[in-house]
Amino acid sequence: MDFLNIGYCQSFVLKNFDSNLDLTLKKIESLATQGVKIICLSEFFCLPYFCDEELYENFELAIDNQSSFFLKLQSVATTFKIVIVASYFEKRTQGLYHNSVCVIDADGKHLGIYRKMHIPDDPNYYEKFYFTPGDLGYKVFNTKYAKIGVLICWDQWFPEAARLVALMGAEIIFYPTAIGWNTSQTEPVNQEQYQAWQLIQRSHAVANGVHIVSVNRTGIEQDGRMQFWGGSFVANPFGSILYQSPHLQEDNPIIKINLKETGFYRTHWPFLRDRRTDSYDPICKKFID
Questions:
Q1: What share of the chain is helix, strand, coil (3-state, %, to 5)?
Q2: CATH class of the structural domain 3-269
Q3: Strand-pair category, 226-229 with 180-182
Q4: Which listed residue (9, 27, 40, 43) is catalytic?
Q5: How much is the pLDDT for 223?
Q6: Has 43 been annotated as catalytic?
Q7: What is the percentage of the chain residues whose pLDDT exceeds 90?
Q8: Is 116 annotated in the active site?
Q9: Whether residue 128 lies in the annotated active site
Q10: Rounded CA separation 110/103 (Å)
């Protein structure tokens, strides 16, 4: 496929897991009937963002890999012949939890999972309390329609992660995300943060010559402390914005992308050709004194 319709769900998140899942499945079906082939959902689309507090009872929100959650996604993927990228809170075993994404292919096959590698710890984002860093490495999934890389939220700030999945053959990088503004911040601070978030991901598109799809949630959560900023977007392999969602509204867009653009931009701007891999060993050090 050269041209491919991709879609995503930028949603308000309710407090009930099953309600969120049912509403999302309906949105997926609607997008699929309009010709979308790959659909990405935001980070923890079935759960309020619970990492604003360190509460042991929140571990009860996690699901294991035998959950009916996957069967429901597989069923809709099979029915509509679509690929689904879905985030979830993974209970691997008692006392071991991950921030994970599953990829369901267009025939309903579960292609595997990616576990978030970079785990943040900031005010209102206490993820290190909940999540063990991923141990599966960076992953690329060979779906029916494209070879895709999947990274999660905080991963999106690290150029090394984007580079690695691009080197593994990813034609599109998907970033399920949950990030927002503290409601006590000023508008200039809010906008500076959003622009930095978008800019860093657009730079990954340019450096690697791949499409970027970043899918955020929206709505006020955390008892009014956090406005998730929406603003989900798709960028082409030279960083141009093909589509950007509004900040404060739900959005379920369809965006047509041209996968052949990777070859065009990589030929005219041959960053991969000119990489000096023999000189990069120091990048593996934490700091160079």
A1: 30, 30, 40
A2: alpha beta
A3: antiparallel
A4: 43
A5: 87
A6: yes
A7: 97
A8: yes
A9: no
A10: 6
Q: 216 is written with which tokens?
A: 């955020």
Cα–Cα distance, 112 to 104 (Å, whole number) = 8
Question: Per the residue annotation, which of 9, 40, 102, 153 is the catalytic one?
Answer: 153
CA–CA dist 250, 49 (Å, integer): 17
Q: What is the pTM of this model?
A: 0.97
Instruction: State the Cα–Cα distance between residues 65 and 86, nearest whole angstrom.
Output: 13
Return the HEC string of 247-288: CCCCECCEEEEECCHHHHHHHHCCCCCCCCHHHCHHHHCCCC
Place of tokens 């798709």: 234
Q: Give the separation between CA 175 and CA 116, rounded to whole angstroms.
A: 11
The predicted structure's pLDDT at residue 119: 98
Question: Which is the catalytic residue, given 37, 91, 116, 139?
Answer: 116
Beta-strand pair 172-176/147-150? parallel
Contacts of 199 (CB under 8 A, 6+ apart): none
Question: How confident is the prediction for the chain on average, in pLDDT?
Answer: 97
